[in-house]
Records
---
Amino acid sequence: MNRNAIYPGTFDPITNGHQDLVRRAATIFDHVIVAIAANPNKAPMFPLDARVSLARRVLHDLPNVEVLGYAGLTVEFAKKHNVGVVVRGLRAVSDFEFEFQLANMSRHLERDIETVFLTPQEQFTFISSTLVREIAVLGGDVSEFVHPIVEVELKKHRRV
Ligand SMILES: Nc1ncnc2c1ncn2[C@@H]1O[C@H](COP(=O)(O)OP(=O)(O)OP(=O)(O)O)[C@@H](O)[C@H]1O
Ligand SMILES: [Mg+2]
């Protein structure tokens, strides 16, 4: 059985919520690829290489986790890396509709790929990269939501 998984997302930047999910996935699967999508249509704050580098530094202690950037379809990336499971996170009901649609579309595109959902510890359920970026740009404190090395990078984008 293929016990490898990918956890795809934009990770702009990686938050403590993402980190919680990766750590859970790393205990369930033999190998986890954190797959960071270039996603130019989302106009990311951090370029792809910076998002990859931050995630690598935050997750460096996990020997069975690898961080890779990619462009194109997630299911193609999964196939290329011989991965049969896609991990996604559910924070609240609000995530469900989009995630359900995405999981069904992935299955439609590639029927052998299963999507598995994990939930974070409850203090991480309200964290999103979007909110963290907005707070940081406005000079708010994000130290509870991101790793200190991510906080340093976010401070460079402060506008007030
Ligand atoms: N705090 C969190 N707890 C659990 N899952 C999360 C959390 N933040 C993101 N995820 C999940 O991680 C996956 C990748 O998310 P993504 O890269 O879009 O992060 P995001 O925080 O939602 O960023 P953005 O606000 O830019 O959309 C998605 O399945 C998302 O639901
Ligand atoms: Mg999102």
Note: The first strand starts at residue 4 and ends at 9.
---
Amino acid sequence: MITVFGEGRGFRVVWLLEEMGLPYKLRPVDLLAGVENDAEYLTINPAGFIPAIRDGDVTMVESIAIMQYLMARYGPTPLAPDPHDAAFPAYQQFLHLGEAGLAASIYFVVVSRNLAPEAERDNWGARKAMEVFESRLGLVTRQLARSPYLAGDKFTAADISVTYALEFAQRTGAAPLGEAEQAYVARTTGREAYKRAMDVCHATKAWADEVAASRNSRGQ
Ligand SMILES: N[C@@H](CCC(=O)N[C@@H](CS)C(=O)NCC(=O)O)C(=O)O
């Protein structure tokens, strides 16, 4: 049985597992309560960040690497086009851009704005991270003008990777999405596997519901 530790970017892993129909369990990790108090999780990932997985005697971190591991070990799956498929280069590029270009940069914008001491919130690093996010988002926008999904006509794990980053940006209010990105997110999150993943990821669901309720109360 595969165990996924933590939500956050662990949502990508849970969504992928739902798409692939693989059995798993989610073991919550509460970073806000202080990972230093979660001795069991620190034996899984001594660096203390989430997500991680345990699969038999395999332990791994890094959400994109975990997705690649699961697709390679339990595939083949249409979520990962064959390297000889014309969709493969764009798939590979956006799979990684979703984390390295989008989620990693917007994460530091958000933690700077919300968690840094007041005097350090507006800082060069956070502004640069915002620029990086926006320039990479431009590549997503350009691709969506060509095809409904990032690797072409078919949904792949690259869409899981990028959708996570776009939803994070949108929910935190760090970067509002344009019309094309909003339509894209509606398309990817309309999938049954996404909905099942949301039912499993209680913290993510509670956060999404809270954001939606607060926007509704402000008439947005
Ligand atoms: N590149 C990593 C990023 C992991 C990451 O930064 N996770 C966040 C939550 S989603 C976290 O644990 N932050 C706390 C920390 O880094 O100490 C991945 O894709 O898994």
Note: Residues 174 and 208 are 15 Å apart (CA to CA).
